[in-house]
Structure formats: structure tokens, C-alpha cells
Design brief:
single chain; 410 residues; alpha/beta; Aspartate Aminotransferase, domain 1; Aspartate Aminotransferase, domain 2; 2 domains; 7-stranded mixed sheet; 4-stranded antiparallel sheet; 12 helices; binds pyridoxal-5'-phosphate
């Protein structure tokens, strides 16, 4: 009989959103008429920008004629898209990225999950707590950890606590680590890292020969001028950082699927015998071996957001969600619930009142206000005592949810 990858057995049994779905389904069965408002899962609700729809229609028509039909495209992405990305997100911001340093994909979940494949399994990994679960789980699957301990942490991982006490900006690890996952703006806390904080990490990585895996899936939500949109705004970052970006939350592509990863040629790793190798070469090899390119129609839709009209429509879309974030944040403050995030990110991370556990808070919210959010403990032990709400709902539901919050008694 075939054996299994034993590392999968180390993963926690119940995935966060599966448990949420189970509790909501049970409540719904007992209360069929309940009008449930979902502010839990980080999925968008508003339609694609009109420019994307137009571009897709046009691309579909091209696929219908032999003269303009496209089969396999370049695995790294069509140049009409990669050039638009590089110009708008990097060159125009004073960052130089070469055309062979960008890799278009079907989204950041795949890229941030797959990237660990090009690193040795003996690397020491640092992960924030709480964290977007993909970084941790993919390292567990690859065998870079031991078993899970009683405190909910895996052996062999360096955890970087992010709590209100350190303003959700992790301290540098005491031991030497090789790979560091940073997510900014952060999911789940909705907070960001300042230029000074990021500089601290880049300097650490340079000093320790580490690589930073920087997830900027929510970069488009940054409103404050002084927060870096890209880690490459930090001097020296191109030598130590790989950056992930996504069209999912930027332009509503969660169901359409498009993202990209920047792997600068100056980011190096070493072989067992001590020679230096560009991670760019390894990622290119991996990408071209295991991925056959993002659909042409989708890449045309993605490129459309960089036209003048596209930029205007994306700005409007993000402003819609960020107004929801403001409504939630202020609504919570009005009922004396401490809330973080929601200024440069579509997530609001609230401190549960009176030290309630995050799952107790989930149940209270579900049962007494028919609102579904996400318990902080599901993102890591340091998320206990916190709760995540998202601003991706409709305006109407967001306002109704806040009105229900105002009536809750804690
Ligand atoms: N990175 C972070 C931090 C996320 O929160 C998400 C989605 O929620 C992703 C990546 C995945 O994005 P994509 O839809 O591009 O796979």
C-alpha cells in the first residue's frame, strides 16, 4: 500500500472556516428564520470593475477567432500585464524591477503557499502569531516543523507574537532564523508595519542572510502616505525579500484568480557546498514546471485596472470597502469595544470585552446579533481574546450589523 506524507497528520483537524460553517449551520437549523449577516470570511461582495468585464468580453471574442486565438501563453505572464504591473506598482514609485523578476499566477494563496518549496527543509522559519494560516500549514506539510504542542504552537517554528502590547509589530527573533513571513497590511489584524519597522526587518535579514517573504495582498488598501506599499521601498530589500501581490482584494478577483510574485535576482540562497544560487532561477524553474500560466482572458482583465479609467474604478471599489471599515470601527468604538486596523486594511481586529474567549464571543455574536465574524484564536494562540470583522460586506449589511452591535449587552 502507498504510504502517505506523514506531515499532513500533524495539521490541526478542524480548519477554522469549516468550524465556523458548522456552528452557523447548526444555529440556522435551530433558527431557520434568523437573518444572518456574514462579516467573517475575507471574500469580496462587489462586482468586478466595468473595465475588467469589458476587457474580458473582448478577450473572449479574440479566443473565438483563429487569427486571434491564444493557446498556452508564457508561464510568467503576458508582457502586456507584467509591464503594466512593473510600471504602475514599482517604476512609478522609484523601484526598479526587471521583466524576468515578475511571475504572474492564479493568486497569492498558491504563491505564498508554494514558495517554501524552493527552500531547504532545514531552514528555520519565523511566522507571526496570529497569522494567515497558509504560511504555517504549508511549512508543516513540507516537514519543516515538529508536532503541535499543547500551547498550540508547532515545534521547530519561531513564533513572532503580534498583540496590542507591541502594537502588532513583531519583535525581532532572539535566535537566528532563515525565512521570515511578514504580511502587511496584515490579515488578520488589519494593522501595518511602518517604514522604521520594515527597515528593522530588512536589516535583520541582511545581517543574518535570511529571506523575507512579504505578503502585500492588501497593499491597495493603504491610505496613509507614510506606510510603504512595497517592501522594496526599503533600502536593501531587493537583496533579501520576495513580494506577493494579488488582484483578489485590489479589484475583486477572488473568483477570477490572478496574482503575481516578485523574486529579485539579487535574493540568494546557498547550496550545501556553500555556493550561492539565485532564488529567482529556482522559482522560474518551479513555476514553468508546475504551472501553465494564468488564463489570457483573466490577464486582460487584470491589465485593465492600470488604464486611467481602471484606476478610477478600483479606487472607487476600495473606497467603498474602506467606508465600511470606518463604519465598523467607529460603531465598535461607540460601544466601547477596542478596535484595531481598518485604516489601511479591510480588516478590523477587536479586543473581546471582559476577557471573553474568541469562540465565546463568536457564539454570543451569532446567537444574540446573528452576526458571523472570525474568532482570533483560529489564526494562532496570540489571537485568543481577539475577533476579526471584515469590511467586505455590502454597505447595507455593514450598517445593519453595527446597529445590532449597539444593542448588545456585555
Ligand atoms: N495573502 C493573504 C494575507 C490573504 O489574506 C489572502 C486571502 O485572503 C491571500 C494571500 C490569498 O489571495 P489570493 O486570492 O490571491 O489567492
Amino acid at each position: 500500500m502507498a504510504t502517505i506524507n506523514e506531515n499532513y497528520m500533524k495539521l490541526q483537524g478542524s480548519y477554522l472556516f469549516a468550524e465556523i460553517a458548522r456552528r452557523v449551520a447548526a444555529y440556522k437549523e435551530a433558527n431557520p428564520s434568523a437573518d444572518i449577516i456574514r462579516l467573517g470570511i475575507g471574500d469580496v461582495t462587489q462586482p468586478l470593475p466595468a473595465v475588467c468585464i469589458e476587457a474580458m468580453h473582448k478577450a473572449v471574442d479574440e479566443m473565438g477567432k483563429a487569427e486571434t486565438f491564444r493557446g498556452y501563453g508564457p508561464e510568467q505572464g503576458y508582457s502586456f500585464l507584467t509591464e503594466a504591473i512593473i510600471k504602475n506598482n514599482y517604476t512609478d514609485r522609484g523601484i526598479s524591477i526587471a521583466s524576468d523578476e515578475i511571475f504572474v499566477s492564479d493568486g497569492s494563496k498558491s504563491d505564498s503557499g508554494n514558495i517554501q518549496e524552493i527552500f531547504g527543509t532545514d531552514n528555520r522559519v519565523a511566522i507571526t502569531d496570529p497569522v494567515y494560516p497558509v504560511y504555517l500549514d504549508t511549512n508543516v506539510m513540507a516537514g519543516r516543523t515538529g508536532d503541535i504542542k499543547e500551547d498550540g504552537h508547532f515545534e521547530g517554528i519561531t513564533y513572532l507574537p503580534c498583540t496590542a502590547e507591541n502594537s502588532f509589530a513583531p519583535d525581532l527573533p532572539k535566535e537566528k532564523v532563515d525565512i521570515i513571513y511578514l504580511c502587511c497590511p496584515n490579515n488578520p489584524t488589519g494593522t501595518t508595519l511602518s517604514r522604521e519597522e520594515l527597515t528593522k526587518w530588512v536589516n535583520y535579514a541582511k545581517k543574518n542572510d535570511s529571506v523575507i517573504l512579504f505578503d502585500a495582498a492588501y497593499a491597495a488598501y493603504i491610505t496613509e502616505k507614510n506606510i510603504p506599499r512595497s517592501i522594496y521601498e526599503i533600502h536593501g530589500a531587493k537583496d533579501v525579500a520576495i513580494e506577493f501581490r494579488s488582484f483578489s482584494k485590489t479589484a475583486g478577483f477572488t473568483g477570477t484568480r490572478c496574482g503575481y510574485t516578485i523574486v529579485p535576482k539579487s535574493v540568494m540562497g546557498r547550496t550545501k557546498d556553500g555556493s550561492r544560487v539565485e532564488f529567482n532561477k529556482l522559482w522560474n524553474r518551479r513555476h514553468t514546471t508546475k504551472f501553465n500560466g494564468t488564463a489570457y482572458v483573466v490577464q486582460r482583465a487584470a491589465a485593465a485596472i492600470y488604464t486611467e479609467e481602471g484606476k478610477r474604478q478600483v479606487k472607487e471599489l476600495i473606497a467603498y470597502y474602506m467606508e465600511n471599515a470606518r463604519i465598523i470601527r467607529e460603531g465598535l468604538q461607540n460601544v466601547n469595544i477596542k478596535a484595531y486596523g481598518g485604516i489601511n486594511a479591510p480588516y478590523i481586529w477587536l479586543k473581546t470585552p471582559h476577557g471573553m474567549s474568541s469562540w465565546d464571543f463568536f457564539d454570543k455574536l451569532l446567537h444574540e446579533a446573528n452576526i458571523v465574524g472570525t474568532p482570533g484564536a483560529g489564526f494562532g494562540p496570540c489571537g485568543e481574546g481577539y475577533f476579526r470583522l471584515t469590511s467586505f460586506g455590502s454597505r447595507e449589511n455593514t450598517e445593519r450589523a453595527v446597529a445590532r452591535f449597539a444593542k448588545l449587552k456585555f
